[in-house]
Write a structure and sequence with these properties.
Helix 4 runs antiparallel to helix 5, helix 5 packs across helix 9 and helix 6 runs antiparallel to helix 9. This protein has 314 residues and is mostly helical. It has 2 domains: 162 residues, no CATH class; 141 residues, Four Helix Bundle (Hemerythrin (Met), subunit A) (Up-down Bundle), CATH 1.20.120.
Length: 314
């Protein structure tokens, strides 16, 4: 047997062991991706809120002579390098997801493309992180870095829904019919959630938590933009309340009912954290909780809009 024929046979043996249906492993990896992207938001917040943004003062190395943090760099180097390592861990999960979906790449193109998008976005996120360090934590670059994280949370949420057959063409159970207003309202809630996150980035860029004592600020009026940031947040709350009204009036059961109540719960919690931090001098711990809340809000809004779009209209 020629050596040239061995690689195709090896590949064939590997692919023959991969699933032909969306099994528990695929579903678990989808959930792991969503959890990992959310944790990345939290660790990124920890980097900024502990003034560890330049804990690794260069990129792609941690120092000019070391790929990893050194004991001399202290806790700041550990926090920053730990955040970088998490990005690589998420890349491994994304690669494994694509491998497991290889036999389904045509039949379940929706899952394969979402998984590919996650994998493709992770190197972009790493490069943006490097540019953030090399620009001395420029607030606009830091904000863009956070926006990519939010987009990855959205993609991961869609991946979970598709993997579990909750939405899309391959949903496993039919969803209850929804009132005609449900779909546009939930779409609007998702858009307003994104707007609130974008304006929150501007507020953070004007605030005191820069990631390093010498990092620049965007020189905008923090108090003014904090109030502007609240406007789409109010609209998200109104949309969530309207969704609950539709569910209760129509006695709608199933995933959409759960999603709407979850959205309202996350929205109220996020509002409570926002008001508390505003009136208490913006403590770092509450800012970190607000960043976690932003990720949960984007996931909840995406989930609700996705379910509404996959449901029939009365």
């Amino acid at each position: 047997m020629s050596t040239a024929s061995r690689p195709p046979r090896i590949v064939s043996r590997i692919t023959s062991r991969l699933p032909l249906t969306v099994d528990k492993t695929v579903k678990r990896m989808a959930v792991l991706s969503l959890i990992g992207q959310t944790v990345l938001v939290v660790t990124g917040g920890a980097v900024r809120l502990t003034a560890s943004g330049l804990g690794c003062p260069t990129w792609p190395r941690c120092t000019d002579t070391s790929l990893v943090n050194t004991p001399e760099m202290g806790i700041h180097g550990f926090i920053e390098f730990g955040n970088r390592l998490l990005t690589f861990a998420l890349a491994v999960v994304a690669v494994m997801m694509l491998v497991y979906l290889w036999n389904l790449r045509k039949e379940r193109r929706d899952l394969f493309l979402l998984a590919f998008g996650l994998l493709a976005s992770i190197p972009a996120q790493a490069v943006l992180g490097g540019i953030t360090v090399l620009t001395g934590l420029n607030p606009w670059v830091v904000g863009l870095h956070f926006l990519v994280s939010m987009a990855l949370v959205v993609f991961s949420t869609l991946l979970v829904n598709r993997a579990y057959g909750r939405t899309g063409r391959f949903r496993e159970q039919p969803l209850p019919a929804l009132p005609g207003a449900a779909r546009p309202v939930m779409d609007a809630v998702a858009l307003f959630s994104a707007a609130a996150v974008c304006l929150g980035i501007v507020v953070t860029g004007a605030g005191p938590h820069a990631g390093d004592a010498n990092a620049p600020r965007n020189d905008l009026d923090w108090d003014l933009f904090a109030h502007i940031h609240a406007v789409p947040a109010y609209l998200v709350t109104a949309g969530a309340l309207f969704g609950v009204f539709l569910v209760l009036r129509g006695r709608i059961a199933g995933p959409f009912r759960t999603a709407v109540f979850l959205l309202l719960g996350v929205t109220v919690l996020q509002a409570a954290i926002g008001f508390t931090q505003y009136y208490n001098g913006i403590p770092a711990l509450l800012v970190g909780a607000h960043m976690l809340g932003a990720a949960l809000l984007m996931s909840a809004a995406t989930n609700t809009a996705d379910l509404a779009r996959s449901s029939r209209v009365e």
